[in-house]
């Protein structure tokens, strides 16, 4: 898997963050994409994981004044939220954007908590600690458990199960590091209980629901199997998984097929101990790699079955590396960055 690690390294910035893709459309930094991109390094001593989270903590330090405001009053306009997308020098991008993305903050907290749990020195000083505490209060001020947001796909504003689940997982992960009122977790769990297996009022199922199984593990086995059944039956296609029925993004006659859906499904089945399904989705993933000269594009354009220009997608490369750990011993993987272990 050295070639895949090399792809990630090519997208790594000097500040430790990552661009989402080398393409001009995606040459930005997203909080969410970074947190997923560095998951293969959670069990590695290469320093990539620590550098990425220190870059994100530095980003939050720069905009701490905004976080301070919205630990006391809810943001209203999109630009008032903690931004989801930044320039490569970690500055806010002034273009209009759907920045109400609670899942990205929940994911950051989850990834930071997981890193600390695995012995990584992510909290450098008292100010980093304060930032983590303020992000918890930010989610509490939002009342994330009932606050509509743009969700993982940065689109329509409604309450998304995947966003609520990310916040529940994040708050649990940092509850030993900072003060997390238990009722804030309980309220999120109540929302999930009432909403699942739907993603939202408008979507009965959605690719984003896989996050509740992997990496967050905030649903029980029965709910996980229900989610997986809905997604494989309704959303799985030949070259990937559509995000949801009726998706208009890169739609030229049908919904775009997202390539990282295959390794993501494999990782979810790995979490459930289903070896046969893991092998099945690994075969589908490697077929896409072979068809794209070792790269995993963001998606195949719906109706044309051609990959779009966002190739490779860092998040998809990361998912592929993570799934590879379940189908071959890491000790036989010729890479200088990873060492034996598993992150699922």
Most strands sheet: 2 strands, antiparallel
Q: Separation of termini? A: 18 Å
Stated plainly, the CATH topology is called Glycosyltransferase
- How many structural domains are formed by the residues? 1
**Helical stretch count?**
12
Secondary-structure element order, N to C: HEHHHEHHHHHEHHEH
Shape: globular
Strand content: under 5%
Structural class: mainly alpha
* Top CATH class: Mainly Alpha
Q: Roughly what percent helix?
A: 40-55%
Shape-level CATH architecture = Alpha/alpha barrel
**Alpha-carbon Rg, integer:** 19 Å
Low-confidence segments: 330-344
- Using DSSP, what is the number of strands? 4
Can you list the strand order of the major beta sheet? 1-2
Average pLDDT: 94
